[in-house]
Automatic annotation (TrEMBL):
PANTHER family found in the cross-reference section: COMPLEX III ASSEMBLY FACTOR LYRM7
InterPro entries noted in UniProt: Complex1_LYR_dom, Complex1_LYR_LYRM7, MZM1/LYRM7
Function, as annotated: Assembly factor required for Rieske Fe-S protein UQCRFS1 incorporation into the cytochrome b-c1 (CIII) complex. Functions as a chaperone, binding to this subunit within the mitochondrial matrix and stabilizing it prior to its translocation and insertion into the late CIII dimeric intermediate within the mitochondrial inner membrane.
Record's protein name: Complex III assembly factor LYRM7
Assembly with partners or alone: Interacts with UQCRFS1.
Residue ranges of every copy of the Complex 1 LYR protein domain listed in the record: 6-60
Gene Ontology cellular-component annotations: mitochondrial matrix
Major localisation: mitochondrion
Family to which the UniProt record says this protein belongs: Belongs to the complex I LYR family.
UniProt keyword terms in alphabetical order: Chaperone, Mitochondrion
């Protein structure tokens, strides 16, 4: 896949992730849209293949971070915040073990 195609795919992936992560939060959706577009526009004239690959890696890392680490919170009261995790963030609870067994 050519670099231009990778950049376009990353751009689309970031916007899809933004829509999933900040669903029903218009302020966050708009702020993320503006930030994504600004970052891509600011690097639009980049011609160095090495630098472009580096920027693609950074963008991919940001997408992964958004997808796996961001949880929405809704203010329900003056000092209360209700967390709304997405289904893909909920993982099976692994029981704690005081005496772990050694791998062989």
């Amino acid at each position: 896949m050519g670099q231009a195609a990778k950049v376009l795919q990353l751009f689309k992936t970031l916007h899809r992730t933004r829509q999933r992560v900040f669903k029903n939060d218009t302020r966050a959706l708009e702020a993320a849209r503006i930030k994504i577009n600004e970052e891509f526009k600011s690097n639009k004239s980049e011609t160095s293949p090495k630098k472009i690959e580096e920027l693609i890696k950074i963008g991919s890392d940001v997408e992964l971070l958004l997808r796996t680490s961001v949880i929405q919170g809704i203010h329900t009261d003056h000092n209360t915040l209700k967390l709304v995790p997405r289904k893909e963030l909920l993982i099976e609870n692994v029981p704690y073990c005081d005496a772990p067994t050694q791998k062989q």
